[in-house]
diguanylate cyclase
Amino acid sequence: MVSLPHWFSDRRCLILAAGAVGVAILLGILAAFGVYDLAFLTLRTVTERGSIVIETRYNPVAFAVFGVLAAITFGGALLLARFIRLCARSGPRASVDEIASASATLGRELANALAVIRLDLANKETYARSLANAQGRLAGLTEADQVRVVVSLLVAENERMRLASEKDKHKLEASAQEIDALQASLRGAEEATLTDPLTGIGNRRLFNDAMTKAIKDSHAQRVPLSLIMCDIDHFKRVNDMFGHDVGDEIIRALARVIETSVRETDSVARYGGEEFAIILPGTELTRAKETADRIRRQFSAKKFAIRKTNQKIGQVTASFGVAEHRPGDDVQEFVRRADAKLYEAKARGRDRVADFGERG
């Protein structure tokens, strides 16, 4: 199936937000697994002698790391919120609900992961404090039994840290799996906001984005760009006579013909109702007209009938307007010129292709 490019601003938001989640989870996994010695992230180190605190040192690196982690988390939340707002303005309601639900769950999983990280850091601070206390006590001990007691306490504290790290590791693994599933759900919901549900090809929203990109690429690479607009002839009459189910099937049939008649680099979208748009990068007007005429002939050759009653619908045709991009054309002007030729084709008898000619 020919589809339109999916690299657009909403997706960038999603990718950046997913990246923020990934960084936060990575920090937690490093802490839980002990892959690196994260003692340098301890907020403070306390040195005691007996019950007297000799020195307390605050680690500026730890505060900086926590600040970066908070910024990443906050930024990811903002990007997800922006993505939801953008989709809410233009996407189907069901898809927006899916995105909102998945995003809410993603936020909860991120909060859980950060809670595990905070707990792990707190455990490390407690562990560092215990080591400092033991160091102070060992310095003043003279009898072997007293040394054995302190060592036993250190062994017990070390085992507690090991069990806590193992528990945190399992929590982070569960959160990572849930986040992977949610990211897949978000991608599916995003696809739904960019796809026409009747035909499975791109919708008007994705067409606008793809056309903007195609014009930019055409200008930057100095290559031609053409646009085909097509519309099913007398479609209202077909709907009135045979019903909307038949009309929908005819729309799907034209979409299939178009998809099988264009290149992988071309983009196809249902522009609205029974009208379609085809973007042809690197294609001059003459070749675009040939493509339009090939689609026209293949579609008009089809014979439609109602399956249940075998009632013959007969020939259904389509008209086409073709334009090549001109310097200075924005999306609206480019579409307007192709649309003007589409209506000219209809005015001249339908089932034909109209273009601006080499000189326009």
